[in-house]
User: Fold these one by one.
Assistant:
Number 1:
Amino acid sequence: MKKVVIIGCGPAGLFAANELAGKFKVVVLDSSPKPGGSGLKSDGKLNFHPEIGGNLLDFMDEDEAWKLLEYIEQLFVSLGAPKANFESDKLERLKLKAAKAGVKFIPIRQSHIGSDELPVIIGKFVERLEKKGVEFRFGVKVLDLVAEGGRISKVVFNGGSIKTDYVLAAPGRSGSEWLTSTVTKLGVKTKYNPIDIGVRVEVPAEIFDEIVFEYKSWDPKFHIYTPSYDDFVRTFCVSPRGYVIKEFYEEGLFGVNGHSFRRTSSNNTNFAFLVRVSLTEPLENTMLYGKRIAQITNTLGGGKPIIQRLGDLIRHRRSTWDRIKRSYITPTLKGVTPGDIAMAYPHRIIQDIIEGLERLDRVVPGVFNETTLLYAPEIKFYAMRIETSKHLQTAIKNLFVAGDGAGVSRGIVGAAATGIIAARGILRSEGISPS
Ligand SMILES: Cc1cc2nc3c(=O)[nH]c(=O)nc-3n(C[C@H](O)[C@H](O)[C@H](O)COP(=O)(O)OP(=O)(O)OC[C@H]3O[C@@H](n4cnc5c(N)ncnc54)[C@H](O)[C@@H]3O)c2cc1C
């Protein structure tokens, strides 16, 4: 039996292993002590849409993409995840309401596992794969890929190496820089992805309750083009009755994110409100741009994220604890510094956030409120996009890539889908049909 070494045990690596199990000797290596990748740290919101969390249409037509998503959903459900809810008539009504306000709403099949349930589901998946003969090795950091005669022959890790017929690299965001430099050395091309820069918005939960409970949209995706700059702004990772949390980026930088749990809840709902930034000549390095903004914001916040009331941002003044205490919303993240986000962010992004929230208020009344809380920085860094075929095969014929680390996905389902695409690419190379 030929061997495939999978680097990374996040959603991409796990779903890839599931495709290959029984047909190849599969060895999954992960530098962390347990499975799940950043998927495990997440909230487990599953979005089943070809253009959310990556773009599956880069790899297949729409029909095929929907079939693949259905397959992934069934697999999640078989592991104990709740079935996605999708009440199309309600979501169509929300789409119409949004359209009238000049906002695009994307109806999506969604399911929410919850941070507390996710480890159980991942545990079951690993157990199932082990029964199918997949070998997992944790605490194993891959350091290099050795090529001979235009093919990868060996994977080198801390403490040893392993010979292999194929490599499927899915090291996630945390391994993206390593992956980019390793494949570049092997002659594979890469390019910068756009970046998302914005804030985490927190409002009293009642403001989103209508969308979440009446329209049945747990993580509503609203897309807006702003009037002044015509920039793309969107809601992302809505956490109903959830908590804002601090998140660490690379190089000691940090920002914020949001979580909600199945069993514990707060009185607030938070969501990311993000401006898409693409750069061309002379600087294409969106990552560097994002890091600089994170750095200034972290410095101004004195080592904590900045919090500001929307009313203060609009009136060009910093927030203070006194002003925040006068609001009828209490922040769920306490380790923050009241300040002025406009001191750290470019004017264009501030303008986009204010105009975008004003527009969103027409669909979600109450969002554009004086006391709405904004936390910064909230930046979504995406990995460099590695050049591949539609089967996620690189210029090195036995090296396939998948997931967030290869810049081809940005979410659990997208990562899982690309893991499957890459695994099926390997099967195809061997003339084996996927079953
Ligand atoms: C706080 C947070 C909340 C999130 N919430 C959601 C959500 O609700 N819904 C959603 O769809 N997405 C969410 N995401 C994003 C989601 O978790 C990722 O998109 C997804 O996990 C990417 O999967 P992946 O398999 O590509 O990579 P990962 O899940 O990051 O897994 C990659 C694995 O590779 C390992 N690795 C890295 N480098 C090496 C190396 N050199 N050698 C060996 N192993 C290595 C890592 O240890 C890691 O275990 C969230 C992310 C975060 C951080």
Number 2:
Amino acid sequence: MAEIIPLTPGGASDPSEPFKESACKLHPQTMCPAFGALRVLARLEGAQPAMITDTGCLYGLTFVTHFYAARKSIVAPALGTAELSSGKVQEAATAAIAEAASEPNVSVIPVISLCVAETAGLAEELLPSSIDGKPVVLVRVPAYAIHSHPEAKDIALAAVLRRFVDRERAHEPGALVLVGEVFPADPLIIDGVLRKMGGRVLTTLPGRHVDELRLAGCGAAVAALHPFYRETVGVLRERGVGVVAGAPIGADGSAAWLRAVGTALELDEAVVEQVAAEEEAAARGFLASQPLKGATIMVSGYEGNEMLYARLLVEGGAHVPYVSTSIGQSMLTAADEAWLKAHGTEAVVYRKAIEDDKAAMARWRFDLVIGTTTLAAYAKELGIPSVYYTNILSVRPLFLAGGMIASLSFVRELMNRRPLYERMVAFFADADPGGTP
Ligand code: SF4
């Protein structure tokens, strides 16, 4: 069980928001948020991003984009102090767009406008809407307006969706659009369950092809599996697509989500009820053993889907007193936050800073920390088992009974690593100042 340690003097002051006051919230403390937009757009087949910014941003963003496996270069103008001070941003943008259009096999040019171009006054109305018949789509993601990379993904996806979504074709009965960068097996598992109810998955966004964006407008409903796709959901709602909030997470969440999808898709109520009950029974069968009982776990990340994992851990028997995320609070986060707070979570921190996470570590004794790289390193120094949220947890199935069992089994395995970490701390504590054990 968690041991609550009083906050140290000088710590956060408002007891209802215990971690909010202590840290600066102006700076996102992550890689440049625009990375999220680049990730979505660079993966789109035929898209050649043109990034309007200076060379400093270009260097950093090219690095992280390639690090996360984009297989294309980014075209950008040479914008330095001289060009900026002489007011050449517009000309430079137009030249970069022309260069992007001349690349082989290009069918669309997303123009990514960042802090520098936005501050210098890039004018949307002076940009071409297409070049050589290839659509040009402006995506504005300066970090002073878009504070996290998940939210930049949303802005980018909404921009291309707005341009390409099919507004003419009829909605396809029973067809559900999924929104969220999820583990590849998850949409297949969801599709399998939906088909038992008489529905199906139409497509999963962000997709790899413009045709998937067109198709999304034909869905009867859209499910935002991750809670930060507000603009994207808004574009589809304008098109008349019904919206299902939340995700099929854990025993509680999966059954409720399947019923909500059944209603949105107007499926047979009795069949939906039977499938939802089967899913719930399968999940509860696994949860009966309470695989994480007695553990206190911290969840912190910048992916935007941290509350989903926290819910799973709680259903697995863990105490999760603290959850933090880089995204902002919204209607799409409300249900998960309310569920967590009704199940023992004392603090849900949006727009988190590392200072919030460290304050939480001073307040509770955690058996496992699932966090950012920086936080995981800090926890390891203290001998607490910890893993990097993005690379370790986000690469596993998560949804419905099957995803839940896979994720919780993995976390239970992590819990057994405590002796290893304690040995590591003891080893370094015993080391002499010269570094020889
Ligand atoms: S200046 Fe803005 S766009 Fe450039 S790297 Fe920094 S946050 Fe990103």
